[in-house]
Each structure stands twice: as structure tokens, then as C-alpha cells.
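Write out the 3D structure for:
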Amino acid sequence: MKTQDFLIGQLLSRTVLNSKYKNIQDAEFKVFSQWGDDGIIQYLVNNINIEKEKFIEFGVENYLESNTRFLLMNNNWSGLIIDGNKRNIEYIKNDEIYWKYDLIAKYSFVTAENINELLIENDFVGSIGLLHIDIDGNDYWIWKAINVVEADIVIVEYNSLFGFEKAITIPYEPYFNRTKKHYSNLYAGTSLLALCDLAEKKGYFFVGTNKAGNNAYFVKKNKIGNLKPLSAEEGFTLSKFRESRDKKGKLTFLRGSERLNIIKGLNVYNTRTNKIEKL
């Protein structure tokens, strides 16, 4: 990343600080995030009463592209990042970011069974500012399992191909790998409605999604302030990115409903009926 890009990001973060948006997507800008999430995060952390400036993010790869790196560098928060690839963690620990900032990087494949232990071991318990879950698979099940931290803001990846009308997710498998499970890379994650249901149980309001249609944002009910709670239908965004692959692993660039058709008939778990059904 060029220094000028970071400086532009700093200027943009001051802009969202003094703005009030009807839709969090209007705050979007990108520095390190894959999409416009850097801007949404800056908008939220500057408009919510954050008690402890600490974050947790799973599935960061080598952390060069992530949704909390700008938060770490621009706002000087403390963070815990976890990735299931040992080489990625070694890369992060050899990056100058690791000594410049208060960052803990841990190698582990996150499961519903080990997540709370991982957080306790690294002293990330109780109140924190932000929790971001993006593991391309068991996202719903991991958030459901977490009970040792209470984040003011929670970001969870959703699969927009599952729509907003049904509360569904992939059935839980501790070591789920979306590429191994289905060659298309499209069979993973959870519907937005399933996340909204879970958020309600955990004491959160759903406040919107990013423009890319893959990250959903939730805020603690007692921190909502001037933000508007939304229904899954009101805040739903259908993704347009084309990441589908063929059986040889090559991108096929499927569009629209073509993407859903390739995974139709696969098993999903209905979180309202607690039963397996066909997609």
C-alpha cells in the first residue's frame, strides 16, 4: 500500500466522523479492506460509545487485505487475529506491523469447540469494541458458540445466494472447507436472516450490509444511538462478484441466478426448524 493511500484513508475517516448517514453503505471507503468496509467501520466506531478499543478478526490470511488493519493503524486499537494457515501467521509476525502495533497473531483452525478457549488463552474476554467473523464456512456456528466476549460491533460474512427469506446455514462440520465441500466455492456460510435471528438472541440490532453484499453489521442494542435497526429484507444486498469455479478450480464467472443453480439441492440447516433441508 502506498503512503498516499493511507493518508487519503485518514482524511476520509475524518469525513465520516462528522457525517450522519441513512445507510451505512454511504460511509464506504477502502484502504486495506477488500471492499468498502474500512469506511463503514470508521463510521461505526466514531458514532458508538466504545468501551474498550480492542478487536478480534478470524480468517485474515496474511493480513495485507483485511477489515481491521486500518482500524489498527489509524485508530491504534489492540487486536487479536487468527488464521488457519501457519505460513500466514509467520508472514504477519515478520511484518513491521507486528512490532509497531499492539497485535496478537495466532495460528489455529477456528471451530465452535475451541473458539472460547482461544479467546481466553489470549486474554480477549469481556467487553471489546469489534468482532469480525469471516471464515467462509461456519460463520453462523462460530458466532453462536462465542460466549466469553461481548463486542459493541459484530461483523459476520453472509452468503447472499441464500437470500433473505430463509434462516439457513451450512450444517456444522468442525473442519469445513468450502473448496473441498463443493468445487464451486459457493456452498458456504449463512443466510442474512439466520444471522439476524441469532443477533436478536444475543442482544444486537442489524444495521446494514456493505455494498458488495457479503458482510453484515450488528450493533449492541444499548449502543445503537442514532443508527436505524433494519430487518433482513430492508438491509439485504445481493452480491455481484463472480467467484464461482469449475471442477478444475478455474473461475467460471457465473452471474446472477446461475450461481445459485450450481449449488441447488445441497443440504442446508434451517435454524428456525432445526432441520436439514435442500437448498
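The chain has a mean pLDDT of 95.
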